[in-house]
Description:
58% of the residues lie in helices and 8% in strands. By secondary structure, it is mostly helical. The chain has one domain (5-100). A three-stranded antiparallel β-sheet has the order 1-2-3, with no helix packed on it. Helix 1 (5-17) crosses helix 4 (82-100), helix 2 (23-34) packs across helix 3 and helix 3 runs antiparallel to helix 4 (82-100). The longest helix is centred in the last third of the chain and has 19 residues, at 82-100. The chain is globular. The two termini are 26 Å apart. Residues 40-57 have low confidence and may be disordered.
Amino acid sequence: MVQSQWEHAIGIVFEGIREYLSDEEYNNIYRYIQKYITPSKPKMRGVCIQVIGSGTELQSPVKPDELEKIFREAVKKFVKEEERQKNICKKVSNIIEFFFK
């Protein structure tokens, strides 16, 4: 299966913040973000993947602001300490700025 631009982008951001997360935080954030990525029709798995809520086709160009929003929501939900949330969200912003803007 060919990796979509969105899947690739999500992988890049995860790679950049992995060292700042505990295993539990990483797994929870990963699962949370996977909920945004589901096949629109099961028999077309991998062909027509969407980001739920926005209707954005994953084969479409990555929207940096939307990508950042998804990660910020996940970090705020699963990282309990406010200072770490800020630092990780800043790291997410920097990664997205560098790679996608």
